[in-house]
Design brief:
mainly alpha; 85% helix
Length: 494
């Protein structure tokens, strides 16, 4: 089950991969470090405000779709969320622009004011697109979700790059691209979703229940996002836009690489776990999560190790203005990204499935406060490395708190055995890769291919021999899938 679902989401992740790495490669070259720094600040602000204002609606769509199907009231479920999305989006957009208008020039210049305004307008449009995407995932309409998501990603990326190259708007381009792509995909997706609203009622009590469930998720996501990205504002204030560009380029390369993997597995398994809880009970859902947690570590930990091992030669991917500072902090960010992913895509599921989303907020407050305090202390002394150390320490505290508190409400398994097995395999892989003699004059790209190929072979062989995280059945099913052989009767999630 897990393997088949992950395969179905490959087009989505290919699109994300192209946009993420294409954005790093291209944007760090066609934008100066200061321009890229302003782009990063606008992007982080846009995503943070989206989480705070809109994510409760998207979370409710994902969580309650299966229950609505069970109760045969999908139309009211969908219609309530879309109507309340409209009622939320209009005043939110007015609030965004109003705040930007009244902010004094000493705090925000005219260029940054316009950049943030366009970014926040584009994210308001994305709310309606995301509601459809969450509905498709929750209802297991994977083909429609994949087509819509991939189209939006690739279109917004392409339009943004063209606008930067062909017009003088510079860092505004990507956000205008997002807005245009959102309108195009909505023109196709909204008529489909309208069919699922027909005959439904807008129910205030249902909306209140969804808000009570989803708003704590929004707040907790803001706190999680502040944990991962809040240091950008401190770096900007202390070190300037160019330093932000270096830090964000490194963070995007290392952390985003891992984030794609976490999202890939999460979007495949979370709807299955929710459906299992609603229709088959706690035991089945817990069984799925056991494989899910081990699977996350099995894929993410060697990926982080690989990023750390090739950080130096991989620097050629980044633009020259941000390369030197970014490469130095990349290994640390990679391992911090594993902890970040386990917080957001694993530990958080305990609060989601139990409905105790308010408690996840409290789990995130201490690490966020710790991260801010450490950044204010360490960044003036150690620069970007101080920000990285602050993040690593705060993530460790956050992951421990989230798991400890989450298990009070939902018996989410902690994959301890898988963690030690995978850690051993990663250490062996790292030792072999570091022992490879690499000629000084070899191109960086070739060096990466050699190290990656040997690392994957060593890790894969060792995992298969020791059946690390139960990977044999995953590998066998994937081979059978591609060879067209009959599937095994054993489901991955069992």
């Amino acid at each position: 089950m897990m393997g088949r679902s992950m395969l179905a989401y490959i087009p989505v992740n290919l699109a994300s991969l192209i946009v993420s790495f294409g954005g790093i490669v291209i944007l760090t070259r066609i934008l100066g470090s200061a321009e890229y720094g302003r782009y990063a600040v606008a992007m982080i602000t846009m995503m943070g405000l989206h989480m705070g204002m809109f994510t409760w609606l998207e979370a409710a769509m994902a969580r309650y779709q299966a229950r609505a199907e069970r109760n045969h009231d999908v139309n009211s479920h969908v219609k309530t969320l879309y109507v309340y999305a409209l009622r939320t989006a209009i005043p939110a957009l007015a609030l965004f622009w109003g705040v930007l208008y009244i902010l004094p020039a000493s705090m925000i210049g005219p260029d940054m004011r316009l950049l943030l305004g366009v970014a926040l307008t584009s994210t308001t449009l994305q709310l309606f697109l995301n509601l459809g995407m969450e509905a498709h995932k929750a209802a297991h309409r994977i083909a429609r979700y994949s087509a819509s998501f991939a189209t939006h990603q690739l279109m917004s990326f392409t339009i943004g790059i063209v606008l930067i190259l062909a017009t003088p708007i510079r860092e505004l381009g990507p956000f205008i691209g997002i807005a245009i792509a959102s309108l195009v995909v909505l023109a196709i997706d909204l008529p489909f979703m309208w069919k699922h609203m027909k005959g439904g009622k807008v129910e205030i009590d249902r909306a209140k229940r969804y808000f009570s469930y989803g708003m704590p998720i929004s707040v907790s996501l803001i706190l999680t996002y502040a944990l991962s990205s809040g240091d950008i504002y401190i770096i900007k204030a202390i070190m300037g836009d160019s330093a932000v560009g270096e830090y964000n380029a490194s963070y995007n390369f290392a952390n985003r690489s891992l984030d794609i993997l976490f999202i890939w597995i999460g979007m495949a398994i979370t709807p299955i776990a929710v459906t299992a809880l609603e229709k088959e009970g706690l035991e089945k859902s817990t069984s799925i999560l056991k494989s899910y947690g081990a699977g996350l570590l099995w894929i993410a930990m060697p990926a982080a190790t690989g990023i750390a091992l090739v950080a130096e030669p991989a620097g050629f991917i980044l633009g020259e203005e941000v390369r030197q500072g970014a490469v130095k902090i990349m290994p640390w960010i990679a391992f911090a990204g594993v902890m970040n992913g386990m917080i957001s895509y694993y530990a958080q599921r305990a609060f989601m499935l139990s409905g105790k989303t308010k408690m996840f907020v409290w789990a995130m407050v201490p690490p966020v406060a710790l991260n801010i305090g450490l950044n204010l202390w360490l960044v003036p002394i150690y620069g970007l490395m101080g920000a990285v150390w602050s993040t690593v320490i705060a993530y460790g505290v956050g992951l421990a708190l989230a798991l400890i508190l989450g298990r009070r409400y939902f018996p989410i398994p902690i994959p301890v055995k898988a963690f030690f097995q995978i850690s051993f395999a990663c250490l062996v892989m790292a030792g072999v890769v570091m022992a490879i003699p690499v000629p000084a004059d070899i191109p960086d790209f070739i060096e990466i291919l050699i190290k990656a190929g040997i690392g994957i072979a060593v890790y894969g062989l060792l995992c298969f021999v020791t059946d690390t995280a139960g990977c044999r059945i995953i590998i066998k099913n994937l081979v059978q899938k591609f060879n067209g052989a009959p599937k095994t009767p054993v489901e991955i999630a069992s």
